[in-house]
Every structure is written in C-alpha cells, then in structure tokens.
# Entry
Amino acid sequence: MANNPTVWGVHMGVHVGDRPIDGGYVGIGWDKMGDLTQIAPDREAFKAALAVAYPDKKAGAIPVDAGSMFKFLHEIKAGDIVVYPSKADRMVNIGRFKGSAEYVAKDPDDYLTHQHVEWLGHFPRNEFSQSALNEIGSFLTMFRIKRHKTEFLSKIDPSIPATAPGIAADPYEAEDATDDDAATVAASLQAEANTSDFVIKRLTTELTGYQFEDFMAHLLECMGYTARVTPKSSDGGVDVIAHMDALGLQPPIIKVQCKRVTNPIGIAEVNQLLGTLGEGEFGLFVCLGSYTRPAIELERNRSKLRLIDGEQFVEMVLENYGKLSPRYRTLLPLKQIYVPDLPKL
# Structure
C-alpha cells in the first residue's frame, strides 16, 4: 500500500443493492447533467452546469454537489482508498481506486459516472468505533476521511496500527458549506444511524447466542404472540416457536431461526429453516446483519418465509420498546426524541 494514501468516503443509495460490489465500482448521479467527464476540469464549470441542469436546486447546495463531482472526477488518483458504507447490508466496503472514471449511460440506478475499484475487504459496521462510523456518516456524496483514516486502513493492512500517528495526525478540514435544511437532514439521518449501530452493538456484545433467542421470544410476545425457546440441544435449526393461541395448537405456527451475527447470511442457512416447515407453518429468519442475494431471491419465491435483517430488527425493537421488560430496557437504554422529517436532498 502506498505510504499515507488519501482515503475517500462515497455514499450511494440503498436501491443499488450489491451491484457496486459485484461490478467493482462506486458511482455518482446527477443524471440530468449527462456525461460529467465532458465538463471542463474546473469547479466553477461544474457549478454552472449544475445550476442549468437543476434550476430549482438551492444556492447553498450547488457548491457542495459541484465539489463532490469535481473530487470524484479529478482528485481521485489510482491507489487512493475508498470506504463505501453500503446501506443495503450495513457493511463497510473498502477498496482501492484504479484511477479511471467512466460515463455509463445505461446504469440501472442512475449513477452514471463510475470510478473503478478493486475491493479489498467487506466488514460489518460493528467492527468500527462509533466515532469512525460518524465520520463516514457524512451527508456528502464524496468526502475525504481524515480523523479515522487509519482505523479503516488497518482493516486492509494489518501492519498499520489503527492509531498510527504518522497518518492519523492529519488535520481535519471542514467540507464545503451547505444550507441549513441539508445540514438538518444530515443530523436527523445521523441520529437514526447512531441508534441502529448502538442497538446492534449492544446485542452482539452483551448477549450470548442463547440469550439473543430469549430476547427474540420476548420481543415476539411484546408483539402479541405466544413464544417459547426450543431446547438448546436439539432445535434442528429452529430457535423459537411462536403462535397466536395460548396453547400453540392452532395454525399458523411460526418457526424462528435467530442469528446474533452481522455478517451476511447465505441461502444454505435459510434452506435449513425451510426444511423444518410442515403444513400450516411459517419460517422467520432473524439476524443482525444482512442476507446474500440468493437468500433474498429465495424469500421472494417462498410465501411462507420472511427474512428480517439488522435494520428491520432495530425497527421492531423501537416500535415495541415501551413493552420490553425492565432488564432489556436496561440493556438498551434509549429515550424517544423527535427529529426533523424534511425530504432527503
């Protein structure tokens, strides 16, 4: 690895799924501007083109967006490192830029400008400090990572200590200014992300696998089900059984597989749960991470199967937080707050 490489953060929407990982790229949008590679390599040129293509864009957002485009096309160098936090699976993907930008007119997600990437590693969010996650939670599409760059670099190069002073001592520079609404939206999104990170980290570090099964059974009871944890020695891939009637004799019966892990769950583990289902029984697979594409496609073709990932699980916890027992509220100390619900810019 080059000595003290520049580390960039890039954001893409949740709708891209795992296409950037499979395709070896990250991309930016602004599709109404056409081929960004044809704009003169000058920030003012990008501002002017942006104002023409998006006449309703707020004045404060123009230099921010133009700056992201300019950096993406003209400041990234071959060998620079990219950190891409994927919203689809809560993974932090780290790669090396190949240094070639390309206009892709038929990109299915309208991220028409690509930078090619060699992916070096994919890591669950809970493997990073909350402070580092906050830095890559920037609302900007394209930004430099400075305060915690060595924490990310150490993941792909163990010879670099996470707090190496020669690299981590880079001064933090504020990014381009933006308007108040954009900053408010960013703060709201950051609050939501911090809550999810906190809940998942607490569950993975403070509970054993068996204790997580107990928590899941309790959560189902808070949702109105009767639930029981199966015997530990012979659950056959079923950790919790839930039903609506008190005795558990009337269908539907819900068989639950619980995984207190943040790495992606594959189709083999999901198929194990499906193999336990009989007439009038449904399968619910719960994890704190995500699922591979084949597992997700399997769910789409099985009406009796439901997959709950980490983000969805946190939503279930928050929706039923007031019903949790005191011991679980102590484990997950949260308080309700209201944040602005402005449109995401």
About this structure: The radius of gyration is 23 Å. Confidence is low (pLDDT under 50) at residues 165-175. The first strand starts at residue 7 and ends at 10.
